[in-house]
Design a protein that fits this description.
The protein is an alpha+beta fold. Helix 5 packs across helix 6.
């Protein structure tokens, strides 16, 4: 089984084309076919070195990954002196709030809805949208399918007292989506994950959308490194059968791992 399927990352600048020579591993037990190129010296071959991307497994193996071929996540936590220091402009969130300019992309709205009667028999979705318009001046609303599926049960959990979560459009004039509904008043808890997917690292922050504070920050190496250290190599890999799906899979795994770390910090 390839090492990346076991979450073992090996440097592969060329995306597995066999031309960079950075995926050197030592075969301690077992046998492989191929993996020997001009990138390996005679001494390397005698020590059992092989290029992982070109070696076909022919038996059970014990493989040692030398330090120069590893991806070491621990270095992300080291504080290094930058060559240049950028000036960072920190926004005054309280001032933005006073001016009405602090507008989180996701907001929560609390509602106390009247229960249906024979005279007031609006469908649950229509009732929710109508009162968001009447009580919070919300318009151009779209209800997501997961909300439609659970709205009847949620409304009746706490006597039609609910909190609706609204996702604002990026561009003006677009529609606001109702992406969740919860029983009771949960407007005091509104959080988001901001993710920056870079070529080398994936970085995320847990943000309190009420205060604007960053509550936790974590980063780790982008798992796509195992398929190419640069964008061009990854484009080449993505063109291979199943390559694009694999690149998508590993970066989603990165994001989920960061979310778990941020959850564990509370």
């Amino acid at each position: 089984m390839p090492p990346w399927k076991q979450a073992v990352h090996i440097n592969a600048s060329c995306g597995g084309e066999g031309v960079c020579g950075k995926c050197r591993v030592i075969i301690e037990h077992g046998s492989v076919e191929g993996g020997i190129t001009e990138k390996l010296s005679k001494e390397d071959i005698e020590k059992g070195y092989s290029q992982a991307c070109l070696a076909a497994v022919r038996s059970d193996l014990v493989v040692r990954i030398p330090v120069e071929s590893e991806v070491d996540i621990s270095v992300l936590n080291l504080q290094k002196t930058p060559r240049r220091k950028a000036k960072i402009w920190e926004m005054n969130l309280e001032e933005l709030k006073e001016k009405g300019l602090f507008m989180p992309p996701v907001e929560k709205k609390y509602l106390e809805l009247p229960e249906p009667t024979p005279q007031d028999n609006l469908p649950d979705v229509t009732r929710l949208i109508s009162f968001l318009k009447a009580k919070h001046d919300e318009h151009r609303l779209v209800v997501q399918l997961p909300v439609i599926r659970k709205i009847s049960d949620i409304l009746r959990t706490d006597d039609f007292r609910v909190t609706a979560t609204l996702a604002r459009p990026v561009h003006s004039g677009r529609k606001t989506h109702i992406i969740n509904i919860q029983p009771g008043d949960t407007t005091d808890r509104n959080y988001a994950i901001a993710v920056d997917i870079g070529t080398t690292t994936v970085y995320s922050q847990l943000i309190d959308l009420i205060t604007g504070d960053a509550l936790a920050s974590y980063g780790e190496y982008n798992g796509q490194i195992s398929y190419g250290e640069d964008i061009i190599s990854r484009i080449i890999f993505a063109d291979k059968p199943g390559g694009l799906e694999k690149l998508h899979e590993v970066v989603i795994a990165n994001i989920n791992q960061l979310i778990k770390k941020e959850q564990g910090s509370f």
